[in-house]
Amino acid sequence: MSSSYHNTINDFDPGNFLSSFFRTAKAVLFSPRSFYQGMRNEGGIRNPFIFLTCCALTHTVFVGLTIKKGVIIALSLCNGLVMPFITAWILYIIVTGLFKGSGTYEAAFRVIAYSAATALISWVPLGGFVLEFYRLYMIAFGLSYVFSVKFSKTLLAVGITVVIYVVVFSLLNIMTGTPGPKTVT
């Protein structure tokens, strides 16, 4: 679908920062179907990246207030700002290559960036775990719309991406000698 068919009221507008930020976050969190159906597929990654940055910074501030460990705070911010670019690339490759979806990297990044709204409240203990599953659902739905692919295929693409991350980070832990989770015996 061409972006001209999309209702662009859902896109974040830094020129009207506060009201646009809260409107966008509310729409993503509480009406993801309407949000992603109305999201533009093109128009640059600047505005979605600004939205993503604000969500990641908010999350990092709250993580910092609760954990107070510099390394974890830095990793939280780095994770929030860098990983969405990588995730969008992986999902773009899977959805267009494996499932023959029609769309762009930009559209995939927009979906990932706006799903970062969950970071605004995912710092709450145990809430983050539940919200991450909700975020994965929102990403799958958003991708299904912007790539014109069945939801089941984009959900599978998200699952494949999660498996890729688990394997890569497990291998990195093994290669660097970083211990995994401790088990109680």
Description:
The structure is a single chain. By secondary structure, the chain is mostly helical. The chain has one domain. It is 70% helix and 0% strand. The chain is built from 7 helices and no strands. The longest helix is centred in the middle third of the chain and has 29 residues, at 70-98. It is globular, with a radius of gyration of 17 Å.
Low-confidence stretches: 1-8
Strand content bin: under 5%
| Record field, number of beta strands | 0
Chain oligomer state: single chain
Number of helices: 7
**Could you say which overall geometry the principal axes of the C-alpha atoms support?**
globular
Pairing-aware structural class of the strands and helices? mainly alpha
Distance between the termini: 56 Å
What is the helix content? Answer: 55-70%
Concise synopsis of the structure shown:
This protein has 185 residues and is mainly alpha-helical. Helices cover 70% and strands 0% of the residues.
Can you lay out the helices and strands and say which pair or pack?
Layout: H1 17-30, H2 32-38, H3 46-67, H4 70-98, H5 105-115, H6 127-146, H7 151-176
Helix pairs in contact: 1-2, 2-6, 3-4, 3-5, 4-5, 4-7, 5-6, 6-7
